[in-house]
Write a structure and sequence with these properties.
The chain has 339 residues and is α/β, with parallel strands linked by helices. The protein has helices at 10-21, 43-53, 82-89, 123-132, 152-159, 198-205, 245-257, 271-276, 288-305, 320-331, and strands at residues 4-7, 26-28, 35-39, 62-64, 94-99, 114-118, 136-137, 165-168, 179-182, 189-192, 209-210, 236-240, 262-266, 280-283, 308-312. It folds into two domains: 4-217, Alpha-Beta Complex (DHBP synthase); 236-331, Threonylcarbamoyl-AMP synthase, C-terminal domain (Rossmann fold, 3-Layer(aba) Sandwich). The strands form two sheets. Strands 1-8-2-3-7-4-6-5-9-10-11 form an eleven-stranded mixed sheet, with helices on both faces. A four-stranded parallel sheet has the order 12-15-13-14, sandwiched between helices. The two termini are 37 Å apart.
Length: 339
């Protein structure tokens, strides 16, 4: 199969629509990362997404809708505080998990009695969702466990020959996946941290919890995706705490000395020190939004030029950095994984 990369216009949207309504999947841009989209009502299309990605069958998908789509077509109950969240943050990088059963393909929620719904703000994503006018389930468009994609080229690198079309909407501005927020209870609970933070949600509805899986034997995790190794570059990785800068540099020099190609991923303020030590530096960025936007492109760069990535945790840990650190820790397969 030939994989086309097309900019978003009337013609490519027509082609995308034709693929979706014949059960196929399409690479699509969003403001967080690129998605692999399929018809949420079509069992075979949803199963195809799992198969193409190699995604574990118990990791549910997010349904993406355009901003005027009638939510009541896909959810059973709209909690009283949900409207304020939608008005404050949507369209945008916030996924809301509603009570829902039997409205879309049973393969979307993997047996959970909930449905995760998102309204992306990316203009190209909106144009695509409007053209099809159905919910599109779209997990990140990477092979399972690999680094998430923030450009059409990243999607191509993972799925060339396996999907017919990638809609090219430029580089994803946000860079990490949406905040996933459960709204089935009395107050919202964040299941996966992202660009919309706990503090931002609290400012709108007063209370917001954070879910950390701490399962009793046999209990089912609320958001299965939080358990898997994810986002990982295809090179060795080692993550150091922010207070271990000197250890990280010594380790990187030692491994470099063995003839290994080593890159050090670290925030902007450490760049001088790392280069003075004669090491290749991947500039994570100065502020939290830059770090979020750059993370996945840097992890993909690392796997293409290094044998080992030595990452140093940024100093800032709160707000948006919670989401960034969550991804970085999973990418480096650290044992200390809160989500
Ligand atoms: P991805 O599409 O690759 O960004 O992954 C979607 C994330 O949303 C995963 O962490 C899923 O576990 C989570 N998710 C999707 N649907 C639900 C749901 N119904 N309840 C809880 N978490 C969900
Ligand atoms: Mg993903």
């Amino acid at each position: 199969m030939q994989t086309k990369i097309e900019t978003i216009n009337a013609e490519s949207l027509r082609y995308a629509k034709e693929i979706i309504f014949s059960g196929g999947v399409v690479g699509m841009p969003t403001e967080t990362v690129y998605g692999l989209g399929g018809n949420a009502f079509d069992d075979a299309a949803v199963q195809k997404i799992f198969a193409v990605k190699g995604r574990p069958a118990d990791n549910p998908l997010i349904a993406h809708i355009h901003k005027d789509y009638d939510l009541s077509k896909i959810i059973d109950y709209d909690p009283p505080y949900a409207k304020a969240l939608r008005e404050a943050f949507l369209p945008g990088p916030l996924t809301l998990v509603y009570p829902s059963t039997d409205k879309v393909s049973k393969f979307v929620s993997c047996g959970l009695k909930t449905l995760a719904v998102r309204v992306p703000s990316h203009e190209g994503a909106q144009a695509f969702l409007r053209a099809v006018d159905i919910p599109i389930v779209a997990p990140s468009a990477n092979l399972s466990k690999h680094v998430s994609p923030t450009s059409a080229k990243h999607v191509y690198d993972d799925f060339a020959g396996k999907i017919p079309l990638i809609l090219d909407g430029g580089e994803s501005e946000g860079g990490i996946e949406s905040t996933v927020c459960d709204i089935t209870g009395e107050f919202p609970v964040i299941l996966r941290p992202g660009l919309i933070t706990k503090e931002m949600i609290e400012a709108v509805v007063g209370t917001c919890g954070e879910y950390a899986p701490n399962l009793a034997a046999g209990e089912r995790v609320k958001s299965p995706g939080v358990l898997y190794k994810h986002y990982s570059p295809r090179c060795q990785t080692r993550l150091f705490a922010d207070r271990e800068v000197l250890d990280a540099i010594a380790y990187a020099k030692q491994e470099n000395g063995k003839g290994k190609r080593v890159c050090v991923l670290a925030e902007e303020s450490l760049g001088g020190q790392i280069r003075e030590a004669g090491l290749a530096w991947l500039n994570f960025g100065g502020n939290e939004r830059e770090m979020a936007a750059r993370l996945y492109a840097l992890l993909r760069e690392a796997e293409s030029v290094c044998d080992e990535l030595v990452a140093i945790e940024p100093k800032k840990k709160d707000g948006v950095m919670k989401g960034v650190l969550n991804r970085l820790k999973k990418a480096c397969n650290s044992q200390d994984i809160p989500h």
